[in-house]
Design brief:
Two copies of one chain form a homodimer. The radius of gyration of chain A is 20 Å and the shape is globular. In chain A, β1, α1 and β2 form a beta-alpha-beta unit. Chain A has two domains: 189 residues, Isopropylmalate Dehydrogenase, CATH 3.40.718.10; 146 residues, Isopropylmalate Dehydrogenase, CATH 3.40.718.10. A ten-stranded mixed β-sheet of chain A has the order 2-1-3-12-11-4-5-10-8-9, with helices on both faces. In chain A, α1 packs parallel to α12, α6 packs across α7 and α11 crosses α12. Chain A is of the alpha/beta class. Helices cover 40% and strands 22% of the residues of chain A. Chains A and B meet through β7, α7, α8 and α9 of A and β7, α7, α8 and α9 of B. β7 of chain A pairs antiparallel with β7 of chain B, so a sheet runs across the interface. Bound molecules: 3-isopropylmalic acid (2 copies). Chains A, B: Homodimer.
């Protein structure tokens, strides 16, 4: 049966980097992969055309899709809009409406790019950490929320951080299952000494871990976790945390590798239907210049092939091709270092295509 | 008039490190500094003795004090207690009851300790960043909060993130005033693209900045800020942010210097009455071994002399003495490197005392 892939290029560098990943999917299609690509509007691009960052049509086609490939959303242009129609709201809407609660964010140091890290080589060499971020709950979606005017005339902004046991359990299971295929260690990150919501998080993880006797569960406060990521990131195997803490820690972790332009992510529902996107943002400052790094998006397509389309060998081919172009010394500007060959977005995409 | 200093050693390594700072204050007292030291219980130590982490007596004496010197609170021993009587609650209670809304957390790289950082020398050399963290509001104190049982029988944990304009303005002013004495740049950190509370934060900071024409205000999302701290921390002069984000970012920033054991902090009210404490925690794993680094606490005493007691020259003497013992190669275990002289907590304290 034909699998339906929805492509949402989004804003900023989104269209450029997605185009390179699509080239590769198209090549696999020519080779016989039974997929059908459909394009949709999201984010600022959607807002400009339709007045909403998540048009009903995009949501509908995404719901019917087997997988979604997303570029990035947001940019200066839309920053003064009301929060309810910002480009980001489109992304949050898809995550929530499609129940994509499990966000997998690897932080891997590519040996070819070891120099790109701002950390000392001995601290990050071989880094391979997986952050599992809860993506459809917590303070991102909690009600009530808003800005109200108090009796004395001043404004007050408020948000609600909320988690129930079932939400914590299902993301915990994802983390434990992933750890079982890795080094078997899960570090759950919370602020259980201050926030009751994450006290429940900690208790629930502890109870859940009893069903996973082979996995070692530890707990860490989020401030300490941010510190330990800088001090000794290789101590971690799998980290699991809330939506907000995961947002912060995964950006920090990915930068440890010096190459956030290299890192893909997957956001999955209960049935491994998923959305795939680079960890990095829409980078409006370099949009349209054909200099962005398409590899995170290309590697996101590889994750899609592996997790949703069950085409592990095609995923392997992409990952090996990426490794080969790096071995060949090809570098976009963000990962460039002396002695390497600087290439554009499309040259990088073509090189991966040729190396498949 | 005699100034009243309340000393709250707290838990873990707290008593050991505070003792070294007290030695120095006592020496200044002998030289004529008109202070009176009084001791109080806080945290786990207070809970064990009185059943509460913040006894009324401690709160009362702290309210009457001109300044407070705190060690650290918390430890494994109390982790299974209900959140309402945890050691941390004592610290949060003092902050809130004394209205210590402005938490100043410098991240400074000591040139003598340049090697201790896990970051490459060129990335952190000369790092001198001040994080201004809102300390008495936000999700730390927002109501409602707790754990409830839902109709279907499962538990739900909830917390409230809330800020009003006046709270944002007063912490903003502190940041702008500090920036005016530094490089004149404030970066306000929020998540205004997702959280309405921090949308108000951003708007309020922007409005406030109009009264500070000589200060350059920029805004950054918290995930990007965590990333930029690792990528290029020297881009920042002063960062100002919420209680929760400040907790995370300041721990991350202090670890950039490789020497969290060196960094003091001040928590001030509207009248520069304040509490002074090291940034690091109670480190229960090394408590009682006389190996902890007392310098962050000693430097906290220096901040107290400077900000609350108006004794800048004594503060200078402490800071110069710390610099001298580092020049002499003295190192506690946390900052030890080959070729240096490893010393204990009390040896380090004595060395600073002798170098005054
Ligand atoms: C764009 C923004 C809403 C989003 C988030 O905060 O989740 C982004 O930072 C991310 O991490 O995917
Ligand atoms: C001990 C804890 C309550 C405290 C906080 O979260 O504020 C600590 O981490 C700090 O940063 O001072």
């Amino acid at each position: 049966m034909t699998k339906k892939i929805v492509v949402l290029p989004g804003d900023g560098i989104g269209p450029e980097i997605v185009a390179e990943a699509v080239k590769i999917l198209e090549k696999f299609r020519e080779e016989g992969l039974n997929i059908n690509l459909e394009y949709g509007l999201i984010g600022g691009a959607a807002y400009d055309e339709t007045g909403t960052p998540l048009p009903a049509e995009t949501l509908e086609m995404s719901k019917q899709a087997d997988a979604i490939l997303l570029g990035a959303v947001g940019g200066y242009k839309w920053e003064s809009l009301d929060i309810s129609v910002r480009p980001e709201k489109g992304l949050l809407g898809i995550r929530s409406e499609l129940n994509l609660f499990a966000n997998l964010r690897p932080a891997i140091l590519y040996p070819q790019l070891a120099d790109a890290s701002t950390l000392k080589p001995e601290v990050v060499a071989g880094l391979d950490l997986m952050i599992v971020r809860e993506l459809t709950g917590g303070i991102y979606f909690g009600q009530p929320r808003g800005i109200r005017t108090l009796d004395n005339g001043e404004k007050q902004g408020f948000n609600t951080l909320v988690y129930r046991e079932s939400e914590i359990n299902r993301i915990g299971k994802v983390a434990f299952d992933i750890a079982a295929k890795r080094q078997g260690r899960v570090c759950s990150v919370d602020k259980a000494n201050v926030l009751e919501s994450t006290e429940l998080w900690r208790e629930t993880m502890t109870t859940l871990s009893k069903s996973y006797p082979d996995i070692e569960l530890s707990h860490m406060y989020v401030d300490n976790a941010a510190m330990q990521l800088v001090r000794a990131p290789k101590q971690f195997d799998v980290m699991v945390t809330t939506n907000m803490f995961g947002d912060i820690l995964s950006d920090c972790a990915s930068m440890l590798t010096g190459s956030i332009g290299m890192l893909p992510s997957a956001s999955l529902d209960e049935n491994s239907k998923g959305m795939y996107e680079p960890i990095h943002g829409s980078a409006p400052d370099i949009a349209g210049q054909n200099i962005a790094n398409p590899l995170a998006t290309i590697l996101s397509a590889a994750m899609m092939l592996r997790y949703t389309l069950d085409e592990a060998s095609m995923a392997d081919r992409i990952e090996k091709a990426v490794s080969k172009v790096l071995d060949d010394g090809l570098r976009t500007a963000d990962i460039y270092s002396a002695g390497m060959t600087k290439v554009s977005t499309s040259e990088m995409g073509d090189a991966v295509l040729a190396a498949l």
